[in-house]
Amino acid sequence: MIAVLKTGTTEQQIENLTAWIKSQGLDVHLSRGSAHTILGLVGDTAKIDAELLESLDIVDSVKRISEPFKSANRKFHPDDSVISVGNTAVGGGAFAVMAGPCSVESEEQVMAIARAVKAAGATMLRGGAFKPRTSPYDFQGLKADGIELLLEAKKETGLPIVTEIMNANHLPLFEEVDVIQVGARNMQNFELLKELGRTQKPILLKRGLANTLKELLMSAEYIMAGGNENVILCERGIRTFETYTRNTLDLSAVPLLHELSHLPVIIDPSHATGVARLVKPMALAAAACGADGLMIEVHNDPAHALCDGAQSLTPDAFADVIAAVTRVRNAVKEQ
């Protein structure tokens, strides 16, 4: 349920109404939009008399929300959320470019890639320290040492870092990480999501391989229900019957998620396709359909990468993609 307040409502009146709603056993989400101030009522709203609430002098209208996700719902928060990450941002017109190796392999590797992607226009450095792999015999990442190498690259380049968490017990290692990534395999690891909800760090939440958009938003709701509203959604392709690509990139997710939610939405064309030559056209399509950013895998020697070399771009190819994406974004703005 949401209560849209009338223009001119005072802070004291808002506080009084909020206190009364909370006395009914509900939580309140306050959203100050460009046109309206909205109180979102979270919990068992059946006990609230909507007609009584709407009759109050300061209330313009009351609406019940049928969707199970509340905090992530655009009806609760009409304006786009902008997630601050260090000296950059995601959403509300701020376009994020997260780039770097699938897996951190060495100091020389991550430093070289960090310098290259920054020069090409990346706003954040992504890199895997803990790597979930289908085979237990594949490279699993450098773990804590990998995070230390990412932090060294951050010191040199100034780029905020994005890396994936696999276990809530690892949270102490992520204290200096700027954005914590929840991978596709952990999208419905609800105990992990609850723990991340108790932090205030930006969370990059990837859609699961076979999950609906509703399920993605419900996972975001788990994080936001814990008090952390700094959530970035990521479409990284879903599993279909197609075999020419690693996954099938669902670009329709971008406008649909923007319609349903105020949270920023980025695209990962690397995991979506699994093919380096397809990253550029899918990145351009993502920019054209209104994505708030991109996550792209870049490696200085893809042929010898320890992880996902087939989908990784060289630094030069990445620079070409970003230049083309910039042109597309500028063209879209003119429409």
The total count of strands amounts to 14
Biggest β-sheet: strands ordered side by side in the sheet: 13-12-11-10-9-8-7-14
Unreliable residue stretches: none
Question: How would you classify the helix and strand content by structural class?
Answer: alpha/beta
Biggest sheet details: 8 strands, parallel
* End-to-end separation: 36 Å
Described by the principal axes of the CA atoms, the overall outline is: elongated
Description:
There is one protein chain. The chain has 335 residues and is α/β, with parallel strands linked by helices. Helix content is 33%, strand content 18%. It is built from ten helices and 14 strands. It has an eight-stranded parallel sheet. The chain has a four-stranded antiparallel sheet with strand order 2-3-1-4. It has a two-stranded antiparallel sheet with strand order 5-6. Strand 2 (27-32) and strand 3 form a beta hairpin. Helix 3 crosses helix 4. The radius of gyration is 21 Å and the shape is elongated.
